[in-house]
Specification:
The protein has 167 residues and is an all-alpha fold. It has helices at residues 2-22, 26-46, 50-75, 78-85, 89-109, 121-127, 129-140, 142-166. The radius of gyration is 20 Å and the shape is globular.
């Protein structure tokens, strides 16, 4: 039953991803992306990572998509994007098919490395997902975390500046 549910969610995720790249309206593409984010959250739940699923929904499906929709609406990308990028759909589909073929080839012909990381099922049972993620995020990955926050701040400021120039 779990396998059938996985394939059903995977099908919805792939169809939503196709909607993201094939919709002519940027708002519809953004809604397809939200649906893809929800499918990824379901995958996290299936992998027994409920904290990551909650973060996926709150951060990506919530905050980041609101930011993207505001930028789309502020810059009025509806008609300009449609005219400029319609010719590249065939090239993008060809590149995606080639990447998919490479992924299938490497998954079928590859072998597992056999390496085991520091975080085992026992460590997760003792500490919990949230504590391990928080400890890694604020010790080992503090610099990338802060750089990401600065990049998001710069993107927001840039969107506001671009919107004010037209007004």
């Amino acid at each position: 039953m779990e396998t059938i549910f996985f394939y059903l969610v995977a099908l919805v995720a792939v169809l939503s991803g196709l909607l993201v790249i094939s919709c002519k309206n940027p708002v519809n593409s953004a809604l397809g992306l939200v649906n893809t984010f929800f499918c990824l959250a379901i995958f996290y739940v299936m992998l027994e990572a409920p904290f990551m699923a909650a973060i996926q929904i709150m951060v990506y499906a919530g905050a980041i998509m609101v930011l993207i929709l505001f930028v789309i609406m502020l810059l009025n990308l509806g008609t300009e994007v449609r005219k400029r990028y319609m010719h590249s759909i065939a090239g993008s589909a060809t590149a995606a098919a080639l990447v998919l073929a490479m992924i299938v080839y490497f998954v079928k012909n590859g072998t597992l490395s056999g390496q085991v990381g520091d975080v085992t099922s026992e460590v997760i049972a003792n500490y919990g997902h949230t504590e391990l993620i928080g400890k890694a995020l604020f010790t080992e990955f503090l610099l990338p975390f802060e750089i990401t926050s600065i990049l998001l701040l710069v993107a927001i400021i840039g969107a506001v500046i671009l919107a004010k120039k037209e007004a």
